[in-house]
Design a protein that fits this description.
The chain is of the alpha/beta class and 613 residues long. The protein is built from 17 helices and nine strands.
């Protein structure tokens, strides 16, 4: 006799899909409008996951992006990029690009050959155009139909403002592609970045680039893995993908298909591309399903409250009616009261948010100013020229952080005031109603070019004069042996060289002082703008919350009146009919409770799978 076949547990995606359809049908039967809201949430889910690519300058990051896209030269290589602009690659039937200014200006179309002018400091922007916050590039690439790629600028290093930009970008992405090269193990800046980003980013994929250029890349890989264990244990055991963008590009010029296939295979780019697709595409679907399950759980919670009220009406009758009338009177008094205690509470919480926010803005602005003043002190000429773009990046990040912080705090304010107004079961309904009905960036003025002054001319004169003197002192021992006319030429050369060096050094010092003055003024401007934006946000939020909470009170009072009518109907039923109705309600309530428990179990399973990845 053969053993019975073992039952196979359906895969998690299949379990989620089955539960979603069953629970949606359950809600559709009871509340068609709520079911439509859940379906709208599912329809709004992101179609594609996103990958943010980060790495130090000259790690081969942008070359790797070009290889992944099969388009050499599309993303300008790191060595030429010195701006805070990043590139977002998406899918389209034909190639197109646009410079984006969120919250400021309409996107500006870009011809693809002109792309480098918009994202590289080595090239001039078209006349009259402003530097964009980011540039979108769409094209007919198979990979981009499945996921979008964000190429962040490599200038500045991962221990500077660029590292913060990468962290902020990665926090909202599906994954981070971290590019290091085979020339040497992780730098201190890279390890610090990974230790920090491990607390913010779920998935990090490592690519070891330029393996064709360094014979000892395997030893570097082993050293990198050991350093991760010691300094970033969150990524201990992570898989590295050895790649060579140059070898992949050479495959396009190979003399025959066999040679091209060999080069592509040895480049490791196809393997990395496959790993990205395998890891991210399925996960994106599950994350979007999680959003749908969360909406279903919210809707089921609201239904549960209504069914429990109906059950009480059928089982307790007069006692339930008396409780509802007392609650209605209490809420009506709260709504009509001249003091409106809940409004006082709301204003108090918003004011506390304003004070907390002022302290946080001051702290972050001080940190930015302190960091960049130190960077100015040690900057050479090229580094000094790059700093304004990095200041812009840092202030944009401060703006985004403060906006997110205010939004989070206002959610807490809402919960606090709702907790004062409504009971636990009522909050289930109110939150569901809120769910169904569901900032301008800082514009930094560019650093003005420091105009030459009379002091500069004096410094040049003093430098040349000093240089002549130094030249004469250097040649003085030879004066007795060589005629003065012969010494004149080398004296002039030494004098001019020393004068040039002295003048250059003093000019660089003056440029640093000018940059510090600009930094102070720019941060003051940015602080003023940010304070104004946040103040407007809080004023608008307080007004909208006041209206929303008043509306919520009105809806709850109307809901109680509806429940009272249901109680009156139940009291008019005979015992037999009431018993039948109660049995139906209990059955539906059991289905609702079971369905909500199942939704929460699946959400926990999705989180577990996500955390393992």
């Amino acid at each position: 006799m053969s053993a019975p076949a073992a039952t196979t547990q359906p895969s998690l995606p299949k379990q989620v899909r089955q539960a979603r359809e069953r629970l949606l049908a359950l809600i559709k039967e009871a509340e068609p409008e709520t079911a439509r809201w859940v379906e709208e949430i599912r329809a709004r889910r992101k179609k594609n996951p996103s990958v943010v690519v980060v790495g130090e300058t000259n790690r081969g990051k942008s070359s790797l992006v070009n290889a992944l896209l099969g388009r050499p030269g599309l993303s300008p290589v790191d060595a030429e990029v010195a701006t805070a602009t990043y590139l977002v690659f998406g899918h389209a039937d034909s190639w197109e690009a646009r410079a984006c200014y969120p919250g400021q200006l309409a996107p500006v179309p870009i011809d693809l050959p002109e792309l480098i002018n918009w994202v590289s400091a080595a090239h001039e922007l078209p006349a009259g155009e402003l530097p964009p916050r980011y540039v979108e590039v769409d094209g007919p690439v198979e990979l981009l139909a499945k996921l979008s790629i964000v190429d962040t600028p490599g200038v500045g290093g991962l221990d500077s403002a660029h590292g913060e930009l990468a962290k902020e970008a990665a926090a909202s992405a599906t994954a981070l592609l971290f590019v290091v090269d085979a020339s040497a193990p992780f730098t201190t800046g890279e390890l610090s970045f990974l230790a920090d980003v491990g607390e913010r980013v779920e998935t990090v994929i490592f690519a070891l680039s330029k393996v064709d250029q360094y014979r000892g890349w395997r030893q570097v890989l082993e050293a990198d893995q050991a350093l991760l264990i010691e300094h970033a244990p969150r990524f201990a055991g992570a898989r590295f993908h050895p790649v060579s963008a140059r070898m992949y590009e050479m495959a396009g010029k190979a003399p025959n298909p066999d040679a091209a296939a060999m080069l592509r295979e040895r480049s490791g780019v196809d393997e990395l591309r496959g790993a990205l697709e395998e890891l991210l595409v399925g996960r994106s679907i599950m994350l979007s399903e999680a959003n749908t399950l969360r909406a279903l759980s919210t809707a089921l919670g609201e239904l549960r409250v209504k069914l429990e009220a109906e059950r009480r009406a059928l089982s307790t009758g007069e006692a339930e009616a008396a409780t509802l009338r007392a609650r209605k009177d209490e809420l009506t008094a709260d709504r009509r009261s001249s003091t409106k205690g809940w409004q006082v509470k709301l204003r108090s919480e918003v004011q506390r948010t304003r004070v907390e926010n002022n302290h946080e803005v001051s702290r972050q602005m001080r940190d930015v100013q302190s960091w960049f003043r130190q960077a100015i002190d040690v900057a050479d000429k090229d580094r000094l020229r790059e700093l304004p773009a990095q200041v812009d990046t840092a202030l944009q990040m401060v703006s985004a952080r403060i906006s997110a912080s205010v939004g989070h705090r206002l959610n807490q304010v809402t919960e606090t005031v709702l907790g004062e107004l409504f009971q636990h079961d009522e909050l289930e309904v109110i939150r569901a109603q809120f769910a169904r009905h569901g900032s301008s960036p800082i514009v930094l003025r560019p650093a003005d070019k420091r105009p030459p002054t009379a002091e500069d001319k004096l410094l040049v004169f003093m430098g040349v004069s000093g240089g002549f003197g130094a030249g004469k002192m250097a040649l003085l021992p030879l004066a007795s042996a060589v005629a003065a006319p012969i010494l004149l030429v080398p004296t002039i050369v030494i004098g001019l060289g020393a004068g040039w060096w002295i003048a250059k050094t003093r000019k660089h010092t003056a440029d640093k002082q000018h940059m510090k003055q600009w930094l102070t003024e720019s941060i003051a401007d940015a602080r003023s703008t940010l304070d104004q934006l946040v103040a407007e946000q809080l004023i608008e939020a307080e007004s909208q919350l006041s209206l929303a909470l008043d509306e919520a009170l009105g809806k709850r009072i109307a809901g109680i009146e509806e429940e009272l009518r249901e109680v009156d109907k139940a009291l008019r039923l005979d015992a037999s009919e009431r018993s039948k109705r109660l049995a139906v309600v209990n059955k539906r309530l059991a289905e609702i409770n079971s369905g909500r428990d199942r939704a929460e179990q699946l959400l926990a399973s999705i989180r577990t799978v996500r955390d393992r990845a």
